[in-house]
Amino acid sequence: MRYRKHIAVVLLAICTLLVATGCRDSRRIPMVNGHPQITIIVGGLEKVIYLPAMLTERLDGFARNGIDVKLIGQSSGSSAELALLTGEAQGVVGFYDHTIDMQSKDQCLRTVVQFADVPGEVELVSKADAESVTSPADFRGRKLGVTSFGSSTDFITQALAGQAGLKPADYSTVQAGAGQTFISAMNHDGIDAGMTTDPTVAQMVKSGEAKVLLDMRTEAGTRAALGGLYPASSLYMRCDMVDAHPDIVQKLADAFVQTLRWIKTHSAEDIAATMPPQYASGGKDLYIQSLRDSIGMFNGDGLMKPEGSQNVLNILGQYSRSVKPARDRIKLEETYTNEFVQRALDKRQ
């Protein structure tokens, strides 16, 4: 029921905004002084999994490639999708699985740069429950934290529980947010376990407040948990936007590929020194450790691996209420493209 309500709220919001904005062409990209003005929603600017967005800005990657990009932090994937659908933003840095989910709802989104082949997510269990919750099979009767309902962490949590033979009715899903909201939920018995990312993982593990139950920051950990790769952090856009502005999409791909290659040749210390100082609010050493634990997730080239996209569809097709009934009509080739990234890579050779 909560999913039907969630979808209804999103659709109502879309209708309201479309009425308010009239017949504005959502494919239009504003120009100022000859430079495209791009707004990109990021599903958490301070999260390490989305680090390439802010790092590209800090490295002047957007300006160097002739585009003016405004990054806006947003914790809700559904809100980011709404911004895309109404033309309030031209791109989202978020999880690839949203492109499949939205296609099941007859909306076309396409990933144009794939940052990572794995989720970069960690299932943490609270210190109080660590001895009794040792695998997803122990999720029965537990309160499990996700970023928000319908989020990628919600999809993956359903998959982990489902593979252990559990149904959604066997456990409670709690919208725990991220960062301090997540920490508070775990420390005040709001959740028994939950899915989150660095730097929150590093902070809670170091303090002893939680332990790592499943680590999907590595390929080995992701394959063990989800049966294969699960491409996650990416830049995706509306399909009609991609088709209407290939030159601008190419500039974005060039900028992000340059950043992904930069990450592979620099240390966690180098990255920490480049990022905004406030991102290390929990302490410089802790932030560097969180980077060291997670930066291996980035693939270095921006390419989508077909094996990964197929595994995402396999998982959503089993455990997503939206995708499951539409699985047989999902066209994966419309959910991503490697053409822009390949051109960017060719330029570097």
TrEMBL record:
InterPro entries with a match to the protein in the record: SsuA/THI5 (IPR015168)
Entry's localization field: Periplasm
Record keywords, A-Z: Signal
Name by which UniProt lists this protein: NitT/TauT family transport system substrate-binding protein
GO BP of this protein: alkanesulfonate transmembrane transport
Species of provenance: Nocardia pseudobrasiliensis
One Pfam family, short name: NMT1
Signal peptide range in chain numbering: none
GO cellular component annotations of the record: periplasmic space
Residue ranges constituting the SsuA/THI5-like domain according to the UniProt record: 62-266
Major site of localization recorded for this protein: periplasm
Similarity comment: family membership: Belongs to the bacterial solute-binding protein SsuA/TauA family.
Highest taxon listed in the record's lineage: Bacteria
